[in-house]
């Protein structure tokens, strides 16, 4: 089932306002979206279970994300417009948020999200989710955070994720359909699929941070503007 966010991401998910990666000490890494998308892009994840394990293909969904200079929380924000039919769009962090994040362990990853308009024929909502990965997503060397799905249009809502093993769980122990309903409805470890890296090893070499961007199911309907 395709999940669509008819609304906008506001990073500080739109994503808007300020998106921030903050260590316990030293300077934070931030996105304000004041002038442009600041390197954030929209990607899609096609996932399936094959004989060789979990197969995850990343697609370019950049047409689904546009910048708005005003109306964020505060300032600019990244807006989802739903041009790509499938797979659902996820916001992907720029290089500034990646690499060795060891000094951020115990710190926070923060963002704001709003659903401005749930669109036409909205029949369900996926949970909020963030996936922090090292290497290929199909290797299951990923950490995941989720929060309960909204039930409709929302005001700007702020999320703070503590970068520790309380808020972040190895994805091999998470039912992937709870992260994205288009994923197989399985817990990878139940099929013998396991990652090879620990929490600390993943945080020492982060190659992608993905934030749920399209979370409303509109039964195939598209909306070009909000």
What's a concise summary of this model?
Helices cover 2% and strands 35% of the residues. With 226 residues, the chain is mainly beta.
Question: Describe it for me?
Answer:
- By secondary structure, this protein is mainly β.
- It is 2% helix and 35% strand.
- A seven-stranded antiparallel sheet has the order 5-4-8-15-11-12-14. Strands 3-2-9-13 form a four-stranded antiparallel sheet, with no helix packed on it.
- The chain is globular.
- The N terminus and C terminus are likely disordered.
Brief descriptors of the model:
mainly beta, 1 helix, disordered C terminus, disordered N terminus, 226 residues, 7-stranded antiparallel sheet
SSE inventory with pairings:
Blueprint: E1 7-9, E2 15-22, E3 29-31, E4 41-50, E5 53-60, E6 65-68, E7 77-80, E8 89-92, E9 108-113, E10 124-125, E11 128-133, E12 142-147, E13 157-162, E14 169-170, H1 199-203, E15 208-212, E16 216-217
Antiparallel strand pairs: 1-7, 2-3, 2-9, 4-5, 4-8, 6-7, 8-15, 9-13, 10-16, 11-12, 11-15, 12-14
């Amino acid at each position: 089932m395709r999940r669509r966010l008819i609304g906008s991401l506001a990073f500080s998910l739109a994503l808007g306002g300020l998106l921030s990666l903050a260590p316990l000490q030293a300077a934070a890494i931030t996105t304000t979206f004041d002038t442009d998308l600041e390197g954030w892009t929209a990607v899609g994840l096609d996932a399936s279970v094959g004989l060789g394990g979990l197969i995850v293909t990343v697609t370019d969904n950049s047409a689904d994300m546009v910048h708005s200079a005003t109306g964020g929380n505060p300032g600019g924000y990244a807006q989802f417009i739903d041009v790509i039919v499938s797979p659902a769009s996820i916001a992907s962090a720029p290089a500034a948020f990646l690499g060795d994040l060891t000094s951020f362990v115990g710190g926070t990853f923060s963002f704001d999200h709003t659903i401005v308009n749930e669109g036409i024929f909205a029949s369900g909502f996926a949970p909020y989710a963030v996936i922090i990965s090292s290497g290929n997503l199909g290797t299951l060397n990923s950490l995941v955070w989720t929060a309960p799905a909204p039930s409709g249009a929302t005001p700007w809502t702020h999320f703070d994720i503590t970068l520790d093993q309380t808020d972040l769980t190895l994805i091999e122990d998470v039912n992937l359909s709870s992260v994205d309903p288009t994923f197989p409805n399985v817990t990878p470890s139940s099929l013998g699929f396991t990652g090879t890296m620990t929490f600390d090893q993943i945080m020492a070499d982060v190659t992608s941070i993905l934030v749920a961007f399209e979370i409303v199911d509109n039964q195939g309907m598209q909306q070009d503007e909000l």
